[in-house]
Specification:
Layout (H helix, E strand, L loop, with lengths): L2 E6 L9 E6 L24 E5 L2 E4 L4 E7 L1 E10 L4 E2 L1 E3 L5 E7 L5 E10 L4 E10 L8 E4 L5 E2 L5 E5 L6 H5 L2 E5 L5 E7 L5 E7 L8 E6 L17 E7 L3 E6 L4 E6 L2 E7 L14 E4 L2 E9 L10 E9 L6 E4 L17 E3 L1 H10 L5 E5 L20 H5 L6
């Protein structure tokens, strides 16, 4: 009888190496160690298989490595307790297998390795280890949701519960695929909430009909100091709808919907009153949500007690509180002057018409001389106000 010696060791806090002796079949079996029926050949060499990490409280966040000494690895299978498999790759000389992803926190793994000794003898080894639970856990809120249809300016957006300082490590785990090969870039911004956020946008608006898939394979990734570990993956899949662009000219006080390149309707509007914080933002603002009838209170956006009323057909454009909405009380100024508290107001009928047709992700391209600045990248989806070159510079992998 020959034996295969399996040495299991771990770095850092792990205990001393363990040796597992696995018996292989002897001479009279139908498929012997030498691989020939009826062979009585005995291996002159033991294959040593080493698995890192090891133990019941092993460190996570690094790839699983299986190495062979005195032979080659012919197959490696690593699975967690839920049956999910870690894929990996074998080195050119067949002596080392490395998982494509890191070992995740709080997870038990089983390792199975098939080997061939230098003299051709086949063998097998098994091992197991478990990683320690994460002390801090980071979570993700993402847009758009799975199965949604969105406008041509909708980015993929991930907002993190906790700080992300290992941005490059996180960004490497974010995989975007599209139905037509659309290319884009991730960019890191500070969300209006104050949290870290990373968005993915193409160079120009999406092509209608594009399907988009995101795989955020974050489980086992350390987000850095004070951020903690990710302990799950995230996915979303969505479709780009019709091209609908709202052209807003606050100097002529008009909003024109351009659908698939053709002007559909022009609506008289009134923007933010000139001077101070009551002015509207300019640049491209992306429709975040259709919120319907809501209570608008100026105190929530730092304008004191200027207003507190119910507003119909509310279409949110920024997190700071700029909307397009019905504002019948301002009817005397539609198409004539800007006299709102910063929003783009219109008649009840026009707002209802627009509300029924717009979709989250539609861009509102706003221009006007007396505005209070350009929509910032983190104030909604203001990244379209950066040049493509400037946006690319916000990737952690540049």
């Amino acid at each position: 009888m020959y034996r295969i010696h399996v040495h299991v060791r771990v770095r850092g806090r792990a205990a001393a190496a363990a040796v597992v002796l696995l018996a292989a079949p002897t001479g009279c079996s139908a498929a012997s160690a030498a691989g020939q029926p009826g062979s009585s050949h005995k291996s002159a060499h033991a294959v040593k298989v080493t698995v890192v990490p090891k133990g019941r409280q092993a460190a996570s966040g690094k790839p699983v490595q299986v190495t062979a000494a005195g032979g080659r690895l012919t197959a490696v299978k690593v699975t967690d307790s839920a049956g999910h498999r870690l894929t990996g790759r074998v080195s050119a000389d067949g002596t080392k297998w490395t998982s494509n992803r890191n070992a995740a926190p709080g997870t038990a793994y089983q390792v199975q390795a098939a080997t061939r000794a230098e003299d051709g003898t086949k063998g097998a080894a098994t091992s197991s280890f478990a990683t320690a639970r994460a002390g801090l856990v980071n979570k993700v809120d993402w847009r758009p949701g799975t199965g949604t249809t969105v406008g041509v300016a909708q980015p993929i957006s991930l907002v993190f519960d906790r700080p992300v300082t290992n941005r490059a490590a996180v960004e490497k785990q974010l995989k975007v695929t599209t139905s037509n090969g659309t290319e884009g870039s991730w960019g890191w911004v500070r969300d209006w909430s104050g949290k870290d956020r990373v968005d993915w946008r193409p160079e120009t608006y999406w092509k209608p009909g594009t399907t988009v898939d995101l795989k955020a394979e974050l489980n086992g990734t350390d987000s850095g100091a004070k951020g903690g570990w990710f302990v799950r993956d995230y996915t979303t899949s969505f479709t780009i709808g019709a091209s609908q662009i709202m052209k807003v000219d606050l100097d002529s006080h008009q909003l024109t919907m351009v659908r698939e390149g053709k002007a559909v309707r022009t609506i008289p509007v009134s923007g933010g009153t000139p001077g101070g914080d009551t002015r509207s933002w300019r640049g491209t603002a992306v429709l975040l949500a259709k919120e319907g009838t809501i209570n608008m209170n100026s105190e929530t956006v730092g304008l004191g007690n200027a207003y507190n009323q119910m507003v119909d057909s509310s279409m949110r454009l920024t997190w700071s509180g700029m909307y397009a909405h019905a504002a019948q009380w301002n009817a005397a100024y539609f198409g004539k002057a800007n006299r709102s508290h910063g929003c783009i107001g219109m008649s009840d009928a026009d707002a209802s018409w627009l509300y029924k047709r717009v979709q989250p992700g539609d861009p509102f391209e706003i221009k006007g001389k007396d505005t209070k600045g350009t929509v910032a990248p983190g104030n909604g989806f203001g990244e379209w106000n950066l040049s493509w070159a400037d946006w690319q510079q916000l990737s952690a992998l540049r």
